[in-house]
Design goal:
120 residues; mainly alpha; 5 helices
Length: 120
């Protein structure tokens, strides 16, 4: 708990830390974090494993690892960004619309109840 408070104070007080956290790369990763979370294990098991096996037949072990990692990260970021635009953003917009509709119905119901109590 103390470490979390100190970290928050450091972020609040330090312009350098704020600059890093507000960078375009970290904003991109943050925007796509949920999609990355959903996809990473699937892609590790399929893409990384397959590309490593292929690259290891052509390259030394270390080079094959880095080639497979590059392929994995490129596909992970590409697919997660696509998921953000095709799934995440539309679902958030839909949930906002549903939430607004529910709030409007609640306000209308509250008005009706209030009028009944006033008239009773």
């Amino acid at each position: 708990l103390v470490a979390a408070v100190l970290l928050m104070l450091a972020v609040e007080r330090s312009m350098a830390i704020r600059k890093v956290l507000c960078s375009t790369l970290l904003q991109f990763v943050g925007r796509n974090a949920f999609s990355i979370y959903l996809l990473h294990l699937i892609l590790i098991v399929s893409v990384f494993a397959g590309s490593f096996k292929w690259a290891n037949s052509l390259l030394p072990y270390d080079a094959a690892f880095f080639a497979a990692a590059a392929i994995f990260f490129a596909l992970l970021l590409l697919i997660s960004n696509g998921m953000f635009y095709l799934v995440d953003r539309p679902s958030v917009q839909l949930s906002r619309q549903v939430g607004r509709a529910i709030e409007a119905m609640q306000r209308q119901l509250l008005r009706r109840i209030t009028l009944k109590w006033k008239n009773a």
